[in-house]
Specification:
With about 260 residues, the chain is α/β, with parallel strands linked by helices. About 40% of the residues lie in helices and about 15% in strands.
Length: about 260
């Protein structure tokens, strides 16, 4: 298994956890394999001849990496006949009240979502047999857990003039990073599964609710967190993006709820 973005949050849990125990892993750094460079990316991956390529690498706001890089990795996977697992996001969709299923047509309203949707399309053309994993807000329960650090920073900054605000009207489906890593490893062996699949938590939580639950899990006072609404902030954000994970469930893929995750220490 060749993994791009192995040093990232999900990448570290995939390559350093139990999810990939059955695999011999190759995780080149971004300096060893710059996915923005088509020829060298294809040469590197085809030289290794992996059975599976898991594409996790991205740089938010850098279209060459997100779109062109994804295309190059997909072309390389197709060239050597490797199974491709491509990571995407729920933000390829706009805000709406109903959950999204895989057959819904994406309509991103944020730049990051537009780049990731363009990357999905590039991957589907270059490697039609690829599986495209759409997930939501990732969190963890160990020392690598970025959202927990965000909450800690917010608690420390609660009395500052520019505190971090957690929105009460922005809903996502938080997914435990270990569960998503396990799903990626499972899908790497499921060549019968192609196209998009939604892998996310089983409940829609507001950013404020999720932050407050996280603060409680950390043993901190959730009331110290600042909350507000997107409308009050003046920002343009997707307010409610909920993924329907029925298709993943039929394959035995499930993410634990935040309550389940935080019940364990």
């Amino acid at each position: 298994m060749l993994v791009t973005g192995g040093a990232g949050f999900l990448g570290r849990h995939l390559t350093g956890g139990h999810a990939s125990d059955r695999w011999e892993l190759i995780a080149p750094s971004s300096t060893a394999m710059d996915i923005r460079r088509r020829d060298s990316t294809i040469d590197t991956i085809t030289d290794w001849k992996p059975n599976t390529v898991v594409h996790l690498a991205y740089r938010k706001g850098e279209r060459r990496t997100v779109v062109d890089g994804s295309r190059h990795v997909a072309e390389a996977a197709a060239a050597c006949g490797a199974r491709l697992v491509h990571m995407s996001t729920d933000l390829v969709f706009a805000s709406r009240n109903r959950p999204y299923v895989e057959s819904d047509v994406p309509f991103p309203t944020e730049d990051y979502g537009r780049d990731k949707f363009d990357a999905e399309q590039a991957v589907a053309i270059a490697c039609p047999s690829a599986v495209i994993v759409r997930t939501s807000l990732l969190y963890g329960t160990d020392d690598l857990s970025v959202p927990q650090l965000d909450v800690e920073q917010a608690l420390h900054a609660a009395r500052s003039e520019t505190p971090m605000i957690f929105f009460t009207d922005e809903y996502r489906c938080p997914a435990h990073v270990e569960d998503v890593a396990a799903a990626v490893a499972d899908l790497a062996e499921r060549s019968d599964v192609t196209g998009p699949i939604h892998v996310a938590g089983p409940e829609a939580l507001s950013r404020a609710d999720f932050a407050q639950r996280t603060a409680t899990w950390l043993g901190r006072d959730p009331a110290a967190l600042r909350t507000g609404t997107i409308k009050e902030s003046g920002l343009t954000r997707s307010a409610r993006v909920v993924l329907d994970t029925t298709q993943a469930a039929t394959l035995g893929i499930r993410c634990r709820s935040v309550k389940e995750a935080y019940a364990r220490r």
